[in-house]
């Protein structure tokens, strides 16, 4: 393997430690802990695992984690009412409603009920708009923010690089493209209707794959020396029957022969998402308390 391995797990651990130190200072200054409310509707096993790791990371960082587990048949009105209660609760700085929601609940409606200043996922249209116009008040979605953090650590200033983003979802692809544009990259956004995708990818200095297709990006899609960020989390059948393993949207082993640097799956972007959730919660807490945002967040 020629590429440098971008260690998201280590970067996330460092960020979490920094957030933990600042969370203790927040508590000393305000007499209360920053608080993150999580809401899970139903019992999707993957969602339950994610919520567990988010909650334990929150506690480890010295923040309060308040969880609401609702049965799968909870009505949309009940979820909206819970969000309103959390909006009004002064002890809650961040609200995360785990996605996907059951199909009888309109996720957009739920997200748009969250107070934008408690929207630590950065999914509310107000935060999407703030990000699009470059307003620093934006709470930015955790996954693209984590990708940007890794890119900056790897490359320093990103000015002038050609960045290609595969995927245009509201939670990953679009905000990723906005962030890269904000860093003065030349940005190409691609999706399922893009023609000549491999060729476009080959022109990327920075390639971000957020597709949800296991190992779609092959070695000949990558410009030699490019920095490759793999957002994909795909569970595929493992070596032993009945077992599964996690792979990204990039064919890691072959891509690593060509890339300059690459994130692994697991241990790349995933851990950064959780670290950024803690970061966003602490940022929201400082703003709500009228405190300046601390350096290094
Ligand atoms: N590491 C982490 O913390 C996180 C990881 N993820 C993972 O990232 C991946 C993407 O997530 P998300 O953005 O929510 O997914 P979505 O399904 O919402 O979006 C996928 C995007 O990929 C595009 N796409 C699909 N097939 C192709 C194709 N053959 N060629 C080019 N583009 C294609 C779609 O295009 P179109 O718009 O035209 O349909 C769409 O824009 C998933 O694997 C998910 O599990 C997600 C969130 C957090
Ligand atoms: N409201 C909301 N906000 C989210 O941020 C959100 C969500 N809903 N729904 C689901 C997706 C997915 N997501 C991940 C978080 C951490 C890892 C992560 O830590 N992954 C580990 C591996 C975990 C494993 O082994 O399964 C890794 O990549 O190393 C992955 C994916 C957040 N999401």
From TrEMBL:
What job does the chain carry out? Catalyzes the oxidation of 5,10-methylenetetrahydrofolate to 5,10-methenyltetrahydrofolate and then the hydrolysis of 5,10-methenyltetrahydrofolate to 10-formyltetrahydrofolate.
Q: Is Membrane among the key words of this record?
A: no
Q: Give one Pfam family.
A: THF_DHG_CYH_C
* Its EC number(s): 1.5.1.5, 3.5.4.9
The UniProt family comment states: Belongs to the tetrahydrofolate dehydrogenase/cyclohydrolase family.
Assembly mode: Homodimer.
List keywords of the entry alphabetically.
Amino-acid biosynthesis, Histidine biosynthesis, Hydrolase, Methionine biosynthesis, Multifunctional enzyme, NADP, One-carbon metabolism, Oxidoreductase, Purine biosynthesis
Keyword Oxidoreductase (UniProt):
yes
Q: What is this protein called?
A: Bifunctional protein FolD
* InterPro entries recorded: Aminoacid_DH-like_N_sf, NAD(P)-bd_dom_sf, THF_DH/CycHdrlase, THF_DH/CycHdrlase_cat_dom, THF_DH/CycHdrlase_CS, THF_DH/CycHdrlase_NAD-bd_dom
Q: Where is the Tetrahydrofolate dehydrogenase/cyclohydrolase catalytic domain?
A: 6-121
Limits of the Tetrahydrofolate dehydrogenase/cyclohydrolase NAD(P)-binding domain: 141-288
Look up and give the organism this protein is from.
Sphingomonas rosea
Gene behind this chain? folD
Q: In which pathway does it act?
A: One-carbon metabolism; tetrahydrofolate interconversion
Ligand binding (NADP(+)): 167-169, 233
Q: Which PANTHER family match?
A: C-1-TETRAHYDROFOLATE SYNTHASE, CYTOPLASMIC, C-1-TETRAHYDROFOLATE SYNTHASE, CYTOPLASMIC-RELATED
| Catalytic reaction equation(s) | (6R)-5,10-methenyltetrahydrofolate + H2O = (6R)-10-formyltetrahydrofolate + H(+); (6R)-5,10-methylene-5,6,7,8-tetrahydrofolate + NADP(+) = (6R)-5,10-methenyltetrahydrofolate + NADPH
């Amino acid at each position: 393997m020629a590429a440098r391995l971008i260690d998201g797990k280590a970067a996330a651990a460092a960020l979490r430690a920094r957030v933990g130190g600042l969370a203790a200072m927040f508590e000393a200054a305000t007499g209360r802990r920053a608080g993150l409310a999580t809401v899970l509707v139903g019992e999707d096993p993957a969602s339950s695992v994610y919520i567990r790791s988010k909650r334990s990371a929150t506690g480890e960082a010295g923040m309060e984690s308040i969880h609401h587990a609702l049965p799968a048949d909870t009505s949309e009105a009940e979820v909206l009412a819970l969000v309103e209660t959390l909006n009004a609760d002064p002890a809650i700085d961040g609200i995360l409603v785990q996605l996907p929601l059951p199909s009888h609940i309109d996720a957009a409606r739920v997200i748009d009920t969250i107070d934008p200043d408690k929207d630590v996922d950065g999914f509310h249209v107000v935060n999407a708009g703030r990000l699009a116009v470059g307003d620093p008040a934006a709470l930015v979605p955790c996954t693209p923010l984590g990708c940007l953090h890794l890119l900056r650590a790897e490359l320093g200033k990103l000015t002038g690089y050609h960045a290609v983003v595969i995927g245009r979802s509201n939670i990953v692809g679009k905000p990723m493209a906005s962030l890269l544009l904000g860093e003065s990259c030349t940005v190409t956004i691609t999706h399922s209707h893009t023609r000549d995708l491999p060729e476009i990818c080959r022109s990327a200095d920075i390639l971000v794959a957020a597709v949800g297709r296991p190992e779609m990006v092959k070695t000949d899609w990558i410009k030699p020396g490019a920095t490759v960020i793999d957002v994909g989390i795909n569970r595929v059948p493992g070596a032993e029957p009945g077992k599964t393993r996690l792979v990204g949207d990039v064919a890691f082993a072959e891509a690593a022969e060509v890339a300059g640097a690459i994130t692994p799956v697991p241990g790349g972007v995933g851990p950064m998402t959780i670290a950024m959730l803690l970061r966003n919660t602490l940022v929201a807490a400082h703003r709500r308390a009228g405190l300046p945002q601390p350096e290094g967040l």
